[in-house]
Amino acid sequence: MFALVTRFNADSDPIKVNLAPGTYKDPEGKPWVLPALQKAAEILLDTPTYNHEYLGIQGHLEFLRLAAQLTLGSSVSAVASLQTVGGTGACHIGAVFLKKLYDHTNKPLQVFISDPSWENHHAVFQHVGLQTRTYSMYDTQTKELDFVAMKATISAALEGSVIVLHACAHNPTGCDPSPEQWDELALLFKERELIAFFDSAYQGSIETFLRGDVQLLVAQSFSKNAGMYGERLGALHVPCPTSRAADHVVDILKAITRREISTPPRFAADLMTIVMSNPELFQEWTEDIRTMSNRLSDMRKELVETLRRLGTPGDWTHITKQRGMFSFTGLTAAQTRYLTDRCHIYLPPSGRLSVTGLTRLNMGYVTKSIDFAVR
Ligand code: PMP
């Protein structure tokens, strides 16, 4: 992905279109600072006591309390939370934590990752010495979630295995289980004593797993939903049976952090604390998220509608059924190569199209080029 971006940047043709970005772009294709976060920054910089002192090892405690409440609700009484370097850092610390626990038991630990998944997942878990495997979840024919296969491969995992789940807006397929299917999965996890590792890069709900008393971890990112990509704000949450257990887990997480980064970055944690603790700003943030989500939905609809009008061969309706920032278009590696090499339209060979790269201005050119590539 980074190589593709380098090629895009080096391309001097003004027609070029980047359909690979992992960061939200506004209707003109520009980065967007969320107004709620902009206001929080103004409040923060106007605060006379504002300073750049280190946070504690665990991070910004009020941020962590509010972040945990946001993702777990208020019914969880004991939770170990740690501020991390983005969602990637949360996945990493979660992986180190699991590795340490299992090294003590001498039991082999297997981590199951969806096929396909965010391209970094296997690397992040393998990097700390864990073994990764895959579970099925995607039907390449229908381009929809293959829930039967998902359940079958997850059921076959050994008891105590860790299953990495995308809390919502699955990257790269855009296919999520329905609420009823999440309920079924929670039952299955409980029955098979599986550990759910929720990668919540886009802030999904994990309520049904909490109600089902499933052992879980949540790697929460504020990159996409608050537009703070480069500020690197995330959190790892581990719900625990008692506050004593939670204190113990926090100690372990702090020991890991101390050795890796000593203390997490401060600025974005200060901003997000202002947003989450101020009802008006919180409301505005919710609306900002809706603005992003609505634009992505509109672009999906327009893409499908324009391809339909052009009579482009194939059924493209899966694009509007999928959710989130990405669409798994079904374009082949050869077709994406044609788009990149001949049309200056950049997207990876998997056919994963970043919907946020589409605008009303480039829609005509992109759809005509897809039409050429497919025929
Ligand atoms: N997990 C998934 C599923 C993602 O899509 C992403 C971002 N593309 C991340 C983790 C990484 O998030 P962050 O940028 O906060 O590290």
TrEMBL record:
Limits of the Aminotransferase class I/classII large domain: 15-368
Cofactor(s) it depends on: pyridoxal 5'-phosphate
Record carries keyword Coiled coil: yes
Coiled-coil blocks: 282-309
Superkingdom field: Eukaryota
EC number: 2.6.1.1
Key words, A-Z: Aminotransferase, Coiled coil, Pyridoxal phosphate, Transferase
Keyword Iron-sulfur attributed: no
Catalytic activity, as annotated: L-aspartate + 2-oxoglutarate = oxaloacetate + L-glutamate
Pfam family, one: Aminotran_1_2
SUPFAM superfamilies reported for this sequence: PLP-dependent transferases
Note: In eukaryotes there are cytoplasmic, mitochondrial and chloroplastic isozymes.
Family statement: Belongs to the class-I pyridoxal-phosphate-dependent aminotransferase family.
Subunit structure: Homodimer.
Protein name in the entry: Aspartate aminotransferase
